[in-house]
């Protein structure tokens, strides 16, 4: 084989190998790209106050509804997003709240309870008794509620854990005033490094406030 032809063949071979390796790099990068194969954890920030909007469709997602209420329909607000996240719980819902008087969020919690979701509520002993508090309604429905047994400080947390993997937390109490009239923030996250400490805190508070341990 003449020398020039051999060099050309060698050059062509090297070009194919280079293209091949680049293709392999591209495939590996594609495979390891976040969001492909390994799903990115959910992170969402919601700010309040939220515009009033109809939320009936969130309770009946399969039914094409024709709601006649006076609220605007089809709006995607901070509150509809919050409610949508809450209703996504399938197995468990752990709520740790200072004040809970919002009837729409209470309706969602009752619905989850009726679906068989294990609901536990930790709340503030004084605030659970105020007018409009939903705690008594949740208790009557058979939901397990605990409050601080030794009152040395307020139970001032505002967080919820869904299925042990989604955390909802921020400044927002679950009250109509907070939702419609206050400047508030909420973070919804599935970051395990954030979810796990909240899970531990909830379980510690739940155990520490077990009424069975405080019998005389
Ligand atoms: Zn409506």
Automatic annotation (TrEMBL):
Alphabetized, the UniProt keywords read:
Hydrolase, Lipid degradation, Lipid metabolism, Meiosis
The reply to whether Oxidoreductase figures as a keyword in the UniProt entry is: no
The record's GO CC annotations read: mitochondrion
GO biological process: what's one of them? meiotic cell cycle
Q: Which reaction does it catalyse?
A: a cardiolipin + H2O = a 1,2-diacyl-sn-glycero-3-phospho-(1'-sn-glycerol) + a 1,2-diacyl-sn-glycero-3-phosphate + H(+)
Q: Name one GO molecular function term.
A: RNA endonuclease activity producing 5'-phosphomonoesters, hydrolytic mechanism
Please give the SUPFAM superfamilies that the UniProt record associates with this protein. Answer: Phospholipase D/nuclease (SSF56024)
The Phospholipase D-like domain covers: 82-206
Q: Which residues form a coiled coil?
A: none
Q: Does the keyword Cytoplasm apply?
A: no
The record's section on InterPro entries has: PLD-like_dom, PLD_domain
Cross-referenced Pfam families, in alphabetical order?
PLDc_2
Task: Indicate the family of this protein.
Answer: Belongs to the phospholipase D family. MitoPLD/Zucchini subfamily.
The protein depicted here goes by the name Mitochondrial cardiolipin hydrolase
Q: Which organism is it from?
A: Bagarius yarrelli (Goonch)
């Amino acid at each position: 084989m003449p020398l020039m032809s051999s060099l050309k063949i060698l050059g062509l071979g090297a070009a194919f190998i280079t293209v091949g390796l680049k293709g392999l790099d591209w495939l590996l990068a594609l495979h390891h790209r976040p969001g492909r194969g390994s799903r990115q954890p959910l992170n969402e920030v919601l700010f309040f106050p939220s515009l009033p909007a109809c939320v009936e469709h969130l309770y009946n997602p399969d039914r094409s509804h024709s709601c006649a209420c006076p609220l605007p329909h089809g709006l995607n607000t901070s509150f509809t997003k919050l409610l949508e996240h809450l209703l996504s719980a399938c197995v468990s819902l752990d709520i740790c709240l200072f004040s809970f008087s919002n009837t729409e969020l209470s309706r969602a919690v009752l619905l989850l309870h009726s679906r068989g979701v294990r609901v536990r509520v930790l709340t503030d002993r004084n605030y659970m008794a105020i007018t409009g508090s939903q705690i008594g309604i949740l208790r009557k429905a058979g939901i397990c509620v605990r409050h601080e047994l030794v009152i040395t400080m307020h139970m001032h947390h505002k967080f919820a854990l869904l299925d042990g993997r989604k955390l909802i937390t921020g400044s927002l109490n679950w009250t109509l005033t907070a939702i419609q009239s206050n400047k508030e923030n909420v973070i919804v996250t599935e970051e395990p490094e954030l979810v796990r400490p909240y899970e531990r805190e909830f379980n510690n508070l739940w155990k520490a406030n077990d009424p069975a341990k405080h019998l005389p």
